[in-house]
Amino acid sequence: MSETIWLEPSNNKTVYLQIKNTSDKDMSGLQAKIASAVTSKGYQVVSNPDTAGYWIQANVLKADKMDLRESQGWLSRGYEGAVTGAALGAGITAYNSSSAGATLGVGLAAGLVGMAADAMVEDVNYTMITDVQIAERTKTQVQTDNVAVLRQGTSGAKVQTSTETGNQHKYQTRVVSNANKVNLKFPEAQPVLEDQLAKSIANIL
């Protein structure tokens, strides 16, 4: 996670989810996994955003093979390529597979890339990049100033500004999930990447 998000304690434990996927991978079950993880934290997932205490909005930008240096770069750039945020330490989780000694790792950690003695053996890392926005309902009004810079050809730009008043504080972060294993294929990596993302999002609450 590129940035830590601190939320105020609240008795309104209702959450509205909006999960999108603009990668080229099918992740139709991702929202259900996130909903389950949020529910396990004692929150209720609701369908009406106007009454929810929190909004969780997430977009999977990319899910593909990637070396760990590139993964770290995506994390360092933060939400939508914003100013570099401090990368939080990540652990390694492993599980046993059908072949003895095979493990699957989740997280950003040194030493995940192993040496393969056989030319047919490839150490593979899959990375999933997700931008996350959390909105927290407040008891007071919140004024937000929006600024957008629109490109005009190759040398110009147009700046648009607007101001809105609401009752939410919004926070943004980026979550980078990694799965690493010898000869790993995406169908095997996908559920681990999704589980890691769901856990990270739920633990913000």
Automatic annotation (TrEMBL):
It is a lipid-anchor. The keyword Membrane applies. Pfam families: TraT (PF05818). Keywords: Cell outer membrane, Conjugation, Lipoprotein, Membrane, Palmitate, Plasmid, Signal. It comes from the Bacteria. It is found in: Cell outer membrane. GO terms for cellular component: cell outer membrane. Its main location: membrane. The keyword NAD does not apply. Responsible for preventing unproductive conjugation between bacteria carrying like plasmids. Belongs to the TraT lipoprotein family. This is TraT complement resistance protein.
